[in-house]
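User: Can you recover a sequence for this backbone? Please restate the input before giving your answer.

Assistant: Of course. Working from this structure:
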């Protein structure tokens, strides 16, 4: 804060917490030396902030390690350019000159490959198509792994310049030529990132429901491997009414009816919560104790998720629906209380 001519003043003298006042001198001293220990996300934010301060600013990044500084500049430089900002000298010092900004109406931003993969994988369970606007980071390992998981679960994955689309035809009555699930496809990658491990488990559960059998999971991608991963995978599958033992997945002998309520689960994190949401599309009524693990990143996720129609291809109900002649959409919900 002193670098910005500001200070943190506690209201209660000699206390260590709140309440406190953020006091500013109203002047930004040039140049501002960026401390080496500044977190990467804070660095990216700092490189963008002077665009709206409407005063001349000089940022000195000479104290920063080379790798995070280069990565942050690569991330924000296109935003500087597209918004019409006047920024000079992308060397040790950056000089910001106040100027009118003309940001694009719909800027193309990079997608998070892991979080995006869970959203796109919904199509494997429900059918249809889903398009996401943004740049797919094909050079990232998680992006390549996600593409493999999509192919394995029968999703047509289409990468465009500023968007990605996932498609899957469940009814085979429209859009001829779309791929069907082929869980026998060999994996081109020999491992999966921890952020995509839960997605692999959810798709494996779909594989079992669709084909009646599942290949040994750890022989495909080496996941789950550690004792903690195996225990967590077994707990995850148990809540879906499945049994995971010796690397094999099967339907639990005591599996109850599709509408039976399962005790509330506290997931270990965002990716597990998203995988649990996918698992609920298989028919069980699930309750998640910490939905904020997802809504903190995507505030509207649960509203959109709970409006999805029930998947008819994974629960074996498509034929029953045709025989009954019912065209009413059934909603699949997960309790997030």
């Amino acid at each position: 804060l002193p670098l910005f001519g500001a200070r943190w003043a506690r209201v209660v003298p000699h206390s260590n917490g709140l309440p406190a006042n953020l006091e500013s001198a109203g002047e930004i001293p040039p140049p501002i030396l960026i401390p080496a220990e500044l977190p990467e996300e804070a660095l990216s934010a700092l490189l963008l902030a002077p665009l709206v301060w409407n005063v001349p600013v000089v940022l000195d990044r000479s104290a920063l390690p080379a790798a995070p500084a280069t990565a942050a500049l690569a991330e924000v430089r296109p935003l500087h350019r597209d918004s019409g900002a006047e920024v000079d000298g992308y060397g040790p010092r950056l000089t910001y000159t106040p100027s009118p900004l003309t940001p694009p109406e719909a800027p193309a931003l990079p997608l998070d490959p892991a979080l995006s993969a869970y959203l796109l994988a919904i199509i494997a369970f429900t059918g249809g198509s889903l398009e996401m606007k943004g740049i797919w980071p094909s050079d990232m390992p998680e992006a390549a792994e996600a593409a493999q998981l999509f192919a394995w679960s029968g999703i047509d994955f289409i990468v465009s310049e500023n968007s990605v689309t996932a498609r899957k035809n469940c009814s085979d009555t429209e859009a001829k030529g779309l791929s069907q699930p082929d869980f026998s496809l060999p994996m081109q990658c020999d491992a999966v990132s921890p952020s995509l491990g839960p997605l692999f488990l959810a798709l494996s559960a779909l594989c079992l429901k669709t084909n009646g059998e599942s290949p040994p999971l750890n022989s495909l991608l080496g996941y789950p491997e550690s004792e903690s991963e195996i225990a967590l995978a077994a707990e995850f599958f148990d809540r879906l009414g499945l049994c995971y033992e010796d690397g094999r997945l099967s339907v639990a002998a005591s599996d109850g009816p599709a509408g039976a309520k399962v005790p509330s689960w506290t997931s270990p994190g965002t990716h597990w919560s998203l995988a649990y949401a996918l698992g609920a599309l298989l028919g069980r009524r699930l309750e998640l104790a910490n939905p904020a693990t997802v809504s903190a990143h995507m505030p509207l996720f649960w509203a959109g998720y709970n409006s999805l129609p029930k998947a008819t291809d994974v629960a074996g109900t498509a034929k029953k629906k045709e025989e009954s002649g019912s065209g009413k959409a059934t909603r699949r919900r997960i309790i997030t209380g």
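That completes the design. The longest helix spans residues 66-82.
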